[in-house]
Design goal:
With 333 residues, the chain is an alpha/beta fold. It has 14 helices and eleven strands.
């Protein structure tokens, strides 16, 4: 559908009106989280574009706190599932239990029946449990016994995985990691931010409570508007060029990357890059996507969708370097 400048102007007004909750959420989260603005922004992008987020970082970087605080600020349901090697699929989705008084089986729903699901250390649980969670993420429904239950909207899975201490872990297969819209690498805070964290935690001051400042209906309205954000054909082609450069680097003047890339981004990468760019534009109060939106979010969308060869590992080339090369070389509209 072709959008006129008048359509974009009207949509821009709607977005300005509907995006007020973003500032309120950021203000609330800043009460308890120092820095990590990029992580919070990515969580909001996942929420607004119907995607799920995989957070990777060493322990102690406020990943769990950020997710829990976001659920409190949105006034939505929150469940935390601590993944362990002895976890069963029924512990995630629920099971049938026998009610002796009524002489019948009843459904006991699992923690997946909530709005925000924190899958803590997802790589600690075996494949069967990971599959149960990923099926719920994809289908947005759960079948227990003979009954299928729709999951309530908004529904957002935020999984964390620890990049260190790989003993006793079950790394997610590439096909399953692909189900996550974004893979966000959480970095250490700056020196000044960490100084503030020390002060907050050593003075014995209790953290101020997080107030619910956004409703689920506001989030659902925003999600509808994100879908309507205008994506010009030139920007669309830019997204395709970036993704295709991960598959056929030699066609994009990047022959040196060909022996380093085992496989490139799937069509899911193109879809998610477009959706994430739209959500990024929404967060910046814009009714249209610009190339900078695509560039800002491309690493988070692509870093878990590019497979490296043994040659890349031997040469100490990582995914970030490959994405940087692609962004430097592909023509910006």
């Amino acid at each position: 559908m072709v959008q006129t400048s008048e359509d974009i102007r009207l949509l821009s007004e709607k977005i300005t009106e509907a995006s007020g909750f973003v500032t309120r959420i950021n203000d609330e989260l800043s009460k308890v989280i120092v820095g990590q603005q990029s992580m919070i922004e990515r969580l909001l992008i996942g929420l607004l574009s119907n995607g799920h987020v995989l957070l990777e970082g060493v322990p102690g970087l406020a990943k769990t706190l950020a997710i829990k605080s976001l659920a409190q600020a949105v006034h939505a349901g929150f469940s935390r599932i601590q993944f362990t090697p002895d976890l069963l699929p029924a512990d995630v989705v629920g099971t049938m239990i026998y009610n002796q008084a009524k002489n019948e089986f009843m459904v006991r729903k699992g923690p997946i029946f909530s709005n925000f699901i924190l899958a803590d250390e997802i790589n600690r649980a075996p494949a069967k449990v990971q599959s149960a969670l990923l099926e719920a993420m994809q289908e947005r429904q759960v079948t227990i016994g003979d009954t299928t239950f729709k999951l309530t909207e908004p529904f957002l899975v935020l999984a964390t995985q620890n990049p260190i201490e790989q003993e006793g872990t079950y790394p997610l297969p590439e096909a399953q990691v692909d189900r996550f819209m974004l893979k966000v690498v959480v970095d250490y805070p700056s020196k000044s931010e960490e100084q503030l964290i020390i002060r907050q935690n050593t003075l014995g001051l209790s953290f101020p409570p997080i107030n619910p400042v956004a409703s689920t209906s506001e989030i659902l309205t925003a999600k509808e508007l994100v879908r309507q954000v205008y994506l010009d054909e030139k920007v669309e082609n830019y997204i395709l060029d970036i993704v295709f450069a991960t598959r056929y680097p030699d066609k994009y003047n990047l022959p040196k990357l060909k022996p380093l890339i085992g496989f490139g981004g799937s069509p899911r990468a193109s879809i998610n890059l477009a959706l994430a760019a739209k959500a990024y534009a929404f967060l910046n109060n814009r009714a249209f996507v610009i190339p900078e939106d695509v560039r800002s979010i491309s690493k988070d969308v692509l870093r878990h969708r590019i497979g490296l060869t043994y040659e890349a590992e031997a040469e100490n080339v990582n995914v970030e370097q490959i994405i940087n090369d692609i962004l430097r070389t592909v023509n910006v509209p």
